[in-house]
User: Fold this.
Amino acid sequence: MLKLYNTLTRKKEEFRPIKPETAGIYACGPTVYWFAHVGNFRTYFFEDILKRVLLYNNYAVKHVMNITDVGHLTSDADTGEDKLEKGAQRENKTAWEVADFYTRHFQNDLKSLNIQEPAIWVKATDTIKEQIDLIKTLEQKGFTYQISDGVYFDTSKLKNYGALWGNKKPAELKAGARVEMMEGKKHPSDFALWKLTPSGVKRQMEWDSPWGRGFPGWHTECVVMSINNLGIPFDIHCGGIDHIQIHHTNEIAQAQGAYGKMMANYWMHGEFLNIEGGKISKSAGNIITLEKLAQKGLSPLSLRYLFLTAHYKAKLDFSWKSLEASQNALQNLRAKILQFKADRTPENVIKADGPARSDSHSDAGGPLAAYRKKFLEFINDDLNMPKALALMWQAINDPDMAGKEKYSLILDMDKIFALDLDKIEAENIPPKILSLAEEREKCRQAKDWQGADKIRAEIEKQGFRIEDMADGPLVKKA
Ligand code: AMP
Ligand code: ZN
Assistant:
């Protein structure tokens, strides 16, 4: 049984899909005005784990992600500049060029992190007509009012506004998240559905609407893009924890207003990644991109490993030291895999001083089956990656399992971890060298030391070396 923590009910709940054996996920995507940073990647990683766990449980997953290429302002209080227009000024390009560049960059970054691509990408600028239609519906139902700078949603018209974070009254909202208040706004929690281009200003991204030329609000686009692709209600809506109070609360309000329904059954939020205790922010100058990692010789998969060490609902601190430790752990893991992978001939699994370690352990009652069962339990317990990772290391060091059993167990676990553990041999050690190593192992088993030494010399001539570890030989590049 898969259990997920639902922000809406503040409980861990059994996942019950709307359609049997399928899961629809909507994940709020990037605002493409700048490089995504390690903090953003933590959220996309968490969503990737969610998707992989659903797939592991045999759900057919429909994963939709939007690209916010308009409407996300620099302030959550509906003031400030549009981030895309700001990016265009900074780079002396059009807003469209900026969006295109950072979208591609983001998609490549996801690939390097082994984050599976969503089945559907949607750009906010491709759904302007549908967004205008949604605002018209809200207007017809009496949820909107217009002030000088745009059309706003009147949150006092909804009894249940703020359910996602405990039905706080708008007055309490004021004390919490919002400081600025747009002139004319009736309540601090009211939010922009359509922003009008101020007179005398020429925006690069603007459209005609029944209320005047302008652009849609950020919260409106996600309602349209999710419901249009997944229906209402759909299964799971996710994002970072910062989206609970404003962005997702205001998506829910619009769907409730327009359709009288809760838009998704499960709302999941990933905790933040902080940098040495503090918030990641451009103004603090502590944005870390994958390029910065590469400059320090640290791989994207080391970052993935670091993310695996914390539960998605726990805060995680990024430091170069912790990332280096993750890179080391990943290297150790790879070395183990090579060792287990080489341990695949029956000769290799026979210990001179004990009974043969054989596939008998894969029987239902053996350790392999027990590890598989525990693994499923951990990942299905609200995606508990730290426990699943610790279990993998426990299996690695288990003296009662043969290397080849460990190998098959770890490859199965890697369907979730996605650390490319299945690609290690292909990338590092050519099959010819591995079969030489196997031959040498046969010589050693037969106590043909001369033969073994000859093959070792041949392996070394080809630029590789062999280390004889407690559980078998390990082939490495020299
Ligand atoms: P944005 O591009 O700003 O819309 O953010 C993209 C995603 O990254 C959203 O789901 C945010 O909630 C998430 N996010 C932003 N900063 C962090 C952080 N420091 N740690 C984890 N997630 C973050
Ligand atoms: Zn969104």
